[in-house]
Amino acid sequence: MKLLIDISGWAGSFLVVLSYALTLIKNKDFSTYYILMNLVGGMLIAVNCFYYKAIPSLVTNVIWSIIALLSIYRAKKHWYQDRKRKRKAQGY
After folding, report:
1. pLDDT tens for residues 21-31?
2. What angle do CA 55, 57, 60 make, to 5 degrees?
3. Residues 6+ away with beta carbon under 8 Å from 12
């Protein structure tokens, strides 16, 4: 079990750093994939922190995951609004 928890922590850290690096390389706004990588990474790190009772890091990663969820919600909301606006402009 400990090995699985350690792997989840390392994988989560990798995902968070990778998503950040990709946003710098691409020099674009966060895409949904990068936000999902942040969400999954934050949750995996939070599991690791919970197991090791690292409460400050756990709270930080839970907040990180909540921010990612809110970002996904906001991106989807804008996507639906843009889609609706385009359909209205096309006469649908």
Report:
1. 888 886 666 67
2. 110
3. 40, 41, 42, 43, 44, 45, 46, 47, 48, 61
